[in-house]
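testing teh design pipeline on a random one, pls ignore if ur not involved
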């Protein structure tokens, strides 16, 4: 077991008692939008897009629910993704966010592992793609640790230069390709 795997195992046992990971439901859209907004890191989409995401991409997304507050549990974190049409073996991770009260405990990595495990089993993916801006060190560390835990190679290249974004001041989006997944 690598150090990253050992760290994640400890995190999973900490969350097991009051956490449930499952597919998002439409009624989770508002909470997911709020978590994304409050992250102060993610590009915030419209609240409508999060409702659609929960409806149309629930099979390739996950939420973490805090069941200590009730059986259904309010979402405290999420990972959204989709299968890339041109590469159906690739899961594209769109956004990852954790409510501020639950950050720093490895929950994002736990959710990512759960999502990839489920989508691998159900749809046979062999790789993960995502984009990360150069200043997002938390995401960079999370995806590097993910590739290590899964015995996969991580390759990076700029996908979209900052100048392509119409609102100006956007950093480049660096494409991370992780695969092939072995565990």
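output:
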């Amino acid at each position: 077991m690598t150090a990253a795997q050992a760290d994640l195992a400890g995190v999973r046992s900490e969350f097991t008692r009051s956490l449930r990971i499952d597919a998002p439901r439409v009624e989770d859209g508002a909470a997911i939008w709020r978590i994304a907004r409050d992250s102060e890191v993610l590009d915030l989409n419209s609240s409508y897009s999060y409702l659609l995401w929960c409806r149309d991409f629930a099979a390739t997304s996950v939420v973490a629910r805090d069941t200590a507050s009730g059986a259904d549990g309010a979402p405290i974190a999420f990972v959204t993704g989709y299968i890339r049409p041109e590469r159906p073996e690739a899961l594209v991770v769109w956004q990852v966010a954790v409510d501020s009260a639950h950050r720093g405990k490895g929950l994002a990595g736990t959710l990512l592992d759960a999502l990839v495990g489920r989508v691998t089993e159900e749809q046979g993916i062999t790789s993960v793609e995502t984009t990360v801006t150069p200043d997002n060190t938390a995401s960079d560390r999370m995806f590097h640790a993910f590739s290590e835990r899964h015995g996969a190679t991580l390759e990076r290249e700029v996908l979209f230069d900052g100048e392509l974004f119409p609102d100006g001041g956007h950093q480049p989006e660096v494409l991370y390709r992780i695969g092939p997944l072995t565990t």
